[in-house]
Amino acid sequence: MPWSVSGLRLGRAWVAAPDPATLRARWAALTGAEGPERERLFRPSRARTPAAGAAALPGQRSAATARFTDDPGPFPDPVRVLRAPFDEQWLLPDQRLIDAARPELWRVLDGQQLFLLENPGLLVTAHLPAGRLGRIRPLHRRPGGAEANLAPGLPALLGSRYGGWVTPEDVLCWILAAGRPGVRGYEVPLAADPERWRAGLELGHRLLTVQLRGARGGEPPRLPGGRRPYVRAAVTVWPRELAYDPETETLSLGDGTVSPVPAGAWEYEAQGVRVLESWFAARSAHRDPGVRDLEGFGPAEWPQSWTSELLALVTTLALLADLAPERAAFTPGPPLPAAELAAAGVLPPPRWSRRPASVLDHQEEGPGGQFALL
């Protein structure tokens, strides 16, 4: 996957939140303020100030492009993003508010797209990654899945080797199964044996299904044997902490409880922290006494929808924990010789494949309402 992009750099935390209502409240407070108070709430940076204009993000035609000080425009409809590993939140899609929005990613964001993240583990999401999630490798270089982000000639070579049609998603699944950290990032050996390829493909498809969590119209993953976490006691007051009892497999959120929660879900880590604790901390951040201004806006009571998200997250992490030993034990066997890849023109990939593709069917509004030339 030659083309990769650095992660979005938001520049100000208040442009993202776990629920859309919080973003609407923050927008109302910002646009209702005037002069120095608006600038203070905005939190200017070297890249973005209220007096600077910016182009509309691709695909977000309702976004305003006038200077924020002149005309904030209407509230932009929040979009679903991946804010941290397995933490889906919402973002204000207004480039005037984001230091580095990576428009090249927004141009290829659609129902066909998947993003592979190196964070440092491998993670796939159907949502736009928005945060410190490592390098982003889109599966497709153009909208509609028109062109795969794969080294030219790779699918044809693998198809002839393994005796069947190889899709971009197949290659992605193989990466999930066989990719391992290396000196220059993730290294992906390609199996010389068709049987090893099919075994890795089967494992990778299971990993992908769990990580996508029902996105793109798929079925949300479920624990086998009808074993699933339930709400045993509803949250009635805002929980101060998240706690886990391994003996009863019970997760406590203040006076609320969820069980059974497998130990693997509680212990699952990404970027060196427990995912469940990180998820909970993101939803309680606005209640921290040290948080002020727009970041302090958030729900006064624990939303029931968050508990539903938590149940789904527990299931996802439990399934990934169950798959972890199988993935760790998987070996691709003898690799395809580098000489064979070079002879087929797969390696090294050409320079153009490392850059974004030209997307000429987009009409994008530039700063001040002028159309941008791509």
Quick tags:
flat; 4-stranded antiparallel beta sheet; alpha+beta; 15% strand; 4-stranded mixed beta sheet; 17 strands; 30% helix; single chain; 374 residues
In short:
With 374 residues, the chain is of the alpha+beta class.
Task: Please tell me about this protein's structure.
The protein is an alpha+beta fold and 374 residues long. The protein is built from 10 helices and 17 strands. The chain has helices at residues 20-32, 35-42, 103-107, 154-162, 168-178, 194-212, 263-267, 275-284, 304-329, 338-343, and strands spanning 16-17, 79-84, 87-91, 115-118, 122-125, 128-129, 135-138, 180-182, 185-187, 230-233, 242-245, 250-253, 256-259, 269-270, 273-274, 364-365, 371-372. A 4-stranded mixed sheet has the order 1-3-2-6. Helix 5 (168-178) packs across helix 6 and helix 6 packs antiparallel against helix 9. The longest helix has 26 residues, at 304-329. The relative contact order is 0.15. The model has no long low-confidence stretch (mean pLDDT 94).
Summarize the main sheet: 4 strands, mixed
Output mean pLDDT. Answer: 94
The number of strands is 17
How far is the N terminus from the C terminus?
23 Å
Strands, helices and their partners?
Blueprint (H helix, E strand, L loop, with lengths): L15 E2 L2 H13 L2 H8 L36 E6 L2 E5 L11 H5 L7 E4 L3 E4 L2 E2 L5 E4 L15 H9 L5 H11 L1 E3 L2 E3 L6 H19 L17 E4 L8 E4 L4 E4 L2 E4 L3 H5 L1 E2 L2 E2 H10 L19 H26 L8 H6 L20 E2 L5 E2 L2
